[in-house]
Write a structure and sequence with these properties.
Structural class: alpha/beta
Radius of gyration: 58 Å
Oligomer: single chain
Shape: rod-shaped
Largest sheet: 4 strands, mixed
Length: about 375
């Protein structure tokens, strides 16, 4: 029995020993296998690295060769810029472009020379510009490795354009307008100087105001009109103190002409010069008939000042009343009525101006040949 137990025990121990031995063998094998794989991985990595380096070396070698080839094929472009006299144009801007794109850009040296280096073969446009000169351009076909020297580029001088604006003075404008106004004759023979048809009328000087007044008063038509007026007065028996004979006619003529001359002197020359007012009627031309009619009537007491603004016509109103007052000095005693005559003559003068202005606005321009070529417009 003991033998059997001993044998069993020995067998069991032997089996356990074999199991442990089997397990230990597996562990030993695994330990030997894993280091081998770890060593193999670096080796494979090293081999792969070596392969990559070789590939990189192979890839790099052609690239370097390409750059060397490009460097060997690049060329250069040079030249010089001068003016028409052959002098250098320093600091001229030289632009090398291709296909509308700027490739390089340099400034010419003090001697007018320029150069572009490292230019790839191809077709280029060479453009040169400088202040005070006209721009120039040329086409260049550069071959591989070529050193191209462009023909001398001569810049022509830019044309100098000078703009001068000449504005005549107001005195010159007034002189020009006055020359045309002195040719204004209704039906070709009736003087009509004291009206302006210019849209922008320059003011008259004092001398020009007196000039117009004298041309109006000392005019054959004025003398003839006064004669006819005096004949009508004598026929109507007005101012009986003068008589009805030739002597009476002469007195009437002298008084009428004096009244006309004094009125024109005061209203159209002296007072306008002192008060700086324009004695002329300004043609309106546009607007409705009622508005133009009202305009013409009111211009008998409203005038344009030398400053270009409308203002009360003191020159005309005071001139008419002054002429009426002076007329009392040479009228026959029996026909003098003091202030009554002065007021009457003054009002007659203003009324006559209003009537004359209506004719100026609506009728006389159509009867004045010298106005046919002139454009009417609002002053």
């Amino acid at each position: 029995m003991q033998s059997a137990r001993g044998a069993f025990w020995r067998a069991w121990r032997l089996g356990r020993a074999q199991g442990w031995a089997w397990r230990l063998g597996i562990l030993i094998c695994m330990g030997a296998f894993l280091p081998a794989r770890g060593a193999a991985a670096p080796a494979q990595a090293a081999v792969a690295g070596a392969g990559s380096s070789a590939a990189a070396a192979q890839a790099t070698a052609p690239s370097s060769a390409g750059q060397a080839a490009i460097g060997q094929s690049a060329g250069s472009i040079s030249g010089s810029v001068t003016d028409p006299n052959g002098g250098p144009v320093s600091a001229a801007l030289v632009t090398l472009s291709s296909g509308g794109r700027t490739v390089q850009q340099v400034r010419a040296a003090d001697n007018g020379e320029f150069a572009f280096a490292g230019v790839a073969p191809g077709n280029y446009q060479l453009s040169v510009s400088a202040a005070g000169f006209e721009s120039q351009s040329a086409f260049v076909a550069l071959h591989p490795g070529e050193t191209y020297t462009a023909p001398r580029i001569v810049l022509a001088l830019a044309p100098v354009v000078t703009s001068i604006k000449v504005t005549p003075s107001r005195a010159e404008i007034a002189k020009y307008q006055l020359q045309h106004e002195e040719k204004q004759l209704v039906l070709g023979f009736i003087p009509n100087y004291l009206v302006t048809y210019y849209p922008h009328t320059a003011p008259l000087s004092s001398r020009q105001k007196f000039q117009l007044m004298f041309k109006t008063v000392f005019n054959p038509f004025t003398l003839g009109l006064t004669t006819a007026f005096v004949g009508g007065e004598q026929a109507a028996g007005m101012y009986s103190g003068y008589g009805n004979e030739e002597k009476g006619f002469a007195k009437r003529f002298g008084a009428a002409y004096a009244t006309l001359g004094i009125g024109a002197f005061m209203s159209d020359a002296l007072l306008p010069s002192i008060l700086k007012q324009d004695p002329r009627f300004y043609y309106k031309a546009d607007g409705s008939v009622p508005s133009r009619l009202l305009y013409a009537i009111t211009r008998s007491v409203i005038c344009k000042g030398d400053n270009g603004h409308w203002e009360p016509d003191f020159s005309s109103v005071l001139g008419h009343f002054a002429a009426g007052g002076i007329a009392n000095l040479y009228l026959p005693p029996q026909n003098r009525r003091g202030w009554g005559t002065t007021l009457e003559n003054g009002m007659i003068g203003i009324g006559f101006d209003a009537f004359a202005n209506i004719l100026q606005e609506f009728l006389l321009p159509k009867l004045t040949p010298s106005l046919s070529h002139r454009r009417h417009g609002r002053p």
